[in-house]
């Protein structure tokens, strides 16, 4: 069923579940006595975000932001624009930004600078996947699920041309799909 587009599974449902549970426990202990505001960056992070927050035992709030890069060509130029901002003020709050992947890092750099200027009490970054080999902007994540090589990853929120976000695992897309 998957063989028309899937090269191989990189992280299975079980592996994701296990790692996300570990991250949730770490966040739980780091934020003991606090009520962090956990921010999902649409759309890629929604599966990770919803699994992560339900594993965190303790009070927290959630909010959503949507960001877009200006086309594929300009992605590396670091130009990003806001599609949807947070609903509420974050001044004095402990913010955790949740992403599916940090690639060049431009999106996260933009987000962190933007939110930092609003005087939160703290900001931390939580990403399921990190591709350090592709980094252009100077940004590091506080919580990382897995480091990945420079491969085309899909599934569990990550898309190719709008598809495959609903796969319950992370896989590598066949070259023949994006090189045709
Ligand atoms: C992806 C991902 C990050 C960004 C990472 O989003 O969710 O937001 O790219 O890339 P960068 O580190 O090179 O900036 P995308 O723009 O594909 O939107 P989506 O989440 O809606 O798929």
In terms of topology, how is this protein built?
Elements lengths: L5 E6 L1 H18 L6 E6 L3 H10 L5 E9 L10 E5 L9 E9 L3 H11 L5 E9 L12 E5 L5 E2 L15 E4 L1 H4 L2
Parallel strand pairs: 2-3, 2-5, 5-6, 6-7
Antiparallel strand pairs: 1-9, 3-4, 8-9
Helix share, percent: 10-25%
Q: What is the count of DSSP helices, taking H or I runs of 4+ residues?
A: 4
**Class from helix and strand fractions:** alpha/beta
Largest sheet, strands/sense/barrel = 6 strands, mixed
Share of β-strand residues: 25-35%
Task: Provide structural commentary.
By secondary structure, this protein is of the alpha/beta class. The protein has a 6-stranded mixed β-sheet with strand order 4-3-2-5-6-7, with helices on both faces. It contains 4 helices and 9 strands, in the order βαβαβββαββββα. The model has no long low-confidence stretch (mean pLDDT 95). α1 packs across α2. The chain starts with 5 loop residues before the first strand and ends with a helix. The relative contact order is 0.20.
